[in-house]
């Protein structure tokens, strides 16, 4: 999937810088985006589970499994068509592009030559319901903490807190 998304991004944006392409690919193949697409495509009854509520990651994982099955059964061209239609051209991309606070914060820190660092402070809960506590440091000063079911999402939440409190008007 990464290869197909990267190729499509480059074909449609040949003059864009590497940073833009990398950021867009990250959003498109990111767990949050895949979960949203999977949740749109699959109903709860499509996924066999003994859990009362199905975790969001299961939808994204199921989507990735479906893409793998299409590739094995129908080949790369059919997998590419599916990926471009459902993943690359997803209605959710614009919404997610606006909320990439880690990238926004990174740009601001590079302008001001300030070092930012994310540190996982805690990992709690069983594997199927893990929760992470992440702290964001500017210099060596802790500026924010955030919890989530994934490290990346906790980092994103911490970055949003800092960005909104330090860099937003």
How would you summarize what this structure contains?
This protein is an alpha+beta fold and 169 residues long. It contains eight helices and three strands; from the N terminus they run H-H-H-H-H-H-H-E-E-E-H. It has helices spanning 2-12, 18-29, 31-41, 56-74, 76-88, 93-97, 101-111, 151-167; strands spanning 116-124, 131-138, 141-148.
Provide structural commentary.
The chain has 169 residues and is α+β, with helices and mostly antiparallel strands. It has 2 domains: 2-97, Orthogonal Bundle (Ribonuclease iii, N-terminal Endonuclease Domain, Chain A); 101-167, Double Stranded RNA Binding Domain (2-Layer Sandwich). The protein has 8 helices and 3 strands. It has helices at 2-12, 18-29, 31-41, 56-74, 76-88, 93-97, 101-111, 151-167; strands spanning 116-124, 131-138, 141-148. The chain has a 3-stranded antiparallel β-sheet, with helices on one face. Strand 1 (116-124) and strand 2 form a beta hairpin. The radius of gyration is 18 Å and the shape is flat. It starts with a helix and ends with a helix.
